[in-house]
# Entry
Amino acid sequence: MPSATTGAARDPGSVQLRLLGHDGVHLADDESYRLPPQTAELLAYLELREGRAARRPAIIRSLWPDKAERLGRRRLSRLLWRVNQAAPRELVITEGETVHISDVLTSDWQQAHDALTHPDWPHTPSLTNDLELLRLPLLVDVHSPWIEEHQRTWDQRRFYALREAAEMLLSSERLRETVEIAELLVTWEPLDEPSHLLLIRAHMKLGAPGRSTELYQEFRRRLRKELGVEPAFELAQVASLAG
# Structure
């Protein structure tokens, strides 16, 4: 699985927070080091908030819902102190009740988000790097109720973005890349017909009609078994061309 280290070059004075991938939340400066669980969750929570900021009561309710506010405030104050003591630069700034992330902290999450909101995506020079980020799950080692909606939304957005990119790659005759992404998609969502269609078309263009037919028959059997339906007409028509 690709790491989240790819992408646009960072400002040399910045520190990158890595929220995507299977390596856990960590910081990347001159070296890469993993964050303690509570520190990781606090920075992730702030990074995913609009404006990268939150008021103390909201942080306490989200991160420690079972704690009384008085105890939660003490824990938060200690944690904020530890974050900046342990980090190479000041990462969080407190202004009264508001806590926000310093401008020196960038993130792979923001990089991926910017890619998806760019009006020309996926027709961008950074597509290869963007695709590596989109393959990665969000906060796999944070297990708190507040993160679940973020994870669901990210997974949905990146699935459809990857499929859109694969369609563009197919039309551009970048067939090996199309196959790689389509195989990921059909593993992820085994009943998603557009993803199977992409994979079958890519193999046909690669000159492997036998593999296309095999993929179609496998998908047809799965649909019949799990949903009791036949593949869509377009998929069946494409498969018939493979013989």
In short: The beta strands are 15-18, 26-28, 32-34, 53-55, 92-95, 98-101, 105-107.
